[in-house]
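okkk here we go again. third time trying to get the flavin mononucleotide bound version out, last two times i messed up the smiles copy paste (missing a bracket lol). double checked this time i swear
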Amino acid sequence: MSEQKLKNKDLNYYYNIARNLLEDFYDCNGKPGWICTPEKFGVTMGLGGAGQGQTFQANYDTLKQYNLKTSLIKANHDPEMSISIFGKDLTMPVMGASVSGVKLSINDIISEDEFYWGLMKGARDFGSIGMVGNTPACPDDLGVTVAGRNDGWGIPIIKPHSQEELIKLFQLAGKLDVIAVGVDLDGVGSQFWNAHGKPLYRKTEKELEELVDCTEKTVIFKGIMTVNDAVKVLDSGAGACYVSNHGGRPMDCGQGVAEVLPDIAKEISGKIPILADGAVRTGFDVLKVLALGADVALIGRPLAMMSVAGGDEAVKLYYEYVKNDLLISMIMTGCDNLQDVTMDILARSKK
Ligand SMILES: Cc1cc2nc3c(=O)[nH]c(=O)nc-3n(C[C@H](O)[C@H](O)[C@H](O)COP(=O)(O)O)c2cc1C
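finally!!
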């Protein structure tokens, strides 16, 4: 491959590949009017959201309600954005959200195994952590075993199966070299699993505690959207509370993440790491989510597109793009380090 050709392998190059491969699903990424819902009633289509896509859209809309304040007159300083979390040093407070389901949702472009690998290796090569999900089209232990192959740089997020099944998968993760293991509690609303005759369950506080206690690994509970649930996650002894509405995929008419995050942060910030995702696309979005109270912002759909379009190389490129914008946004808002990133750098849009 000539050097010139390699140089041209930029994000546009990979997005063009993704556009061709994903066909009609390419635009299911928050573009108004393209939420991939009208085609098939009941089951979320492609990369879209449930129902009329309102929860999905709420993530964009509620984040858009905040603008960054410019603050320039102070000593020059290269912003410090690295963090240590779960025993790893990360280049910036951004991770890859757990995504799964190439066969059912991402046009069956590559194998689920290759997809997970692209997400995790691309993240690691950049200096971040990629999470992987759990789909009914593959064995339930696939995410756990693929995550275990990345020298301790992967996190499997497992669906809320029966407690017995979950404990088995947690114990498998415990034997493998993974950083942490989690459950997307909101996966209980997934219609894919119902359609495959595989039941998922809500979990009690006692069951959360049991999961935390059954493994030495850090445990993450994902899908938290209220202060009440966040406190229960904290009380369970979990290692992180992951604020998310699953990109609007299980339930329509839900709240946007940026709407609930500040209240959750007020209650549990500093007691347990807060992870948050939902319509984070750029480094500017990352800064807003951090200012609203997250310790780490996570990105779902764009990284999924990169993994199918160009594997780890494309995924890494996306992290680099986010990092550049995050750097600029910290400089422009007068943030020298992550401690400076507070609600004070945000203004509510008057629109
Ligand atoms: C196609 C697709 C599959 C997903 N699969 C999972 C999954 O298996 N487990 C999980 O915890 N979350 C899953 N998610 C949700 C993501 O982890 C994340 O919460 C969401 O995509 C974040 O929003 P964003 O895509 O706007 O960045 C999935 C999302 C999409 C779009």
